[in-house]
Design goal:
With 326 residues, the chain is an alpha+beta fold. It has seven helices and eleven strands. Among the domains are: 132 residues, Pantoate--beta-alanine Ligase, Chain: A,domain 2; 92 residues, Ribonucleotide Reductase Protein R1, domain 1.
Amino acid sequence: MTARSPSAAQQRGMAIISALLIAAVVAVIAGGMLTRQTLFTRALESEQLRVQGSWQLQGGLEVGRQRLWEDRQRDVLTRPDQAWARPIQLAALGPGSGPFEGRLEDEQGKFNLRNLLANDRLDPLQIENFQRLCALLGVNAAVGQRIGQRVIASYPRLLGPEGAAPAASGLHSGRETSPDAARKPLLARQPMLRSLDDLLGIEGVDEQLLARLAPFVTILPANTWLNGNTASAEALAATVPGLTLPRARALIAERDSGQWFINQGDFINRLRLPEVPADKVRVGITSEWFRLQGQARGERRRVRLLALLHRSEDNMPRVIWSRVGV
């Protein structure tokens, strides 16, 4: 029996250690490859779902535009019994994606904060109307005043009453009280507002308050009349001087039973307020501005869409702006 030499035993031990090291390296490399493959697969699936969600949102947007266009060709009136007011539902595009669900809202059925200014000047009537609406909705008067000030600050404006002819002094000191100040517009001091969410940050304005205002108040890029066929009782009572909330609710109940307002004269006659001048009743029967809210639901996430659409008489509705988020 011969004893193994120390050198042979040492070499055998080194070979075992080397084999173990190689096996460990291979295992690490294989694990890394599997991890990268998993991450790549998930990224690919996520991108596929994102693309499917984008197509779903675009499809919902196009359905909304088409409905608005077809309704406008059928009837000049804008009423909540038309096709545009029905929920928009699209089936899922494929595995992993979900359906699109959305709805159009008539933004001219709400009080438009843009109306606080008209022809680059403050509109005292609309400012008073907004204060009345805040009172009807239980919004603190000081908070309502700060909202109005924020809206006014986001637009350039001229000083002085509508139609006033400023004295041609040729001098302007830069003060608002300068004799020639009415000739030079005050520049906007705040960024332009696109939606009620942009009012967050004003003292006293939080998400709960915006949720209370949302069914009754909007911000549009242009001055508008209220649509009597889609407006709430609160919006009507705030817009029509002398119209009480109970009387406005009675008008709404009559309207929603199918007796739609066919023109402004019809609305004024049914008010039964002969003491209110017709030029103070800024209520019509058609709408050009609509908002689409929708979402595409998938297995792991949902993508939301918010868009503002403008419908003219002669062209397909245009998307003025849109926001997409999860």
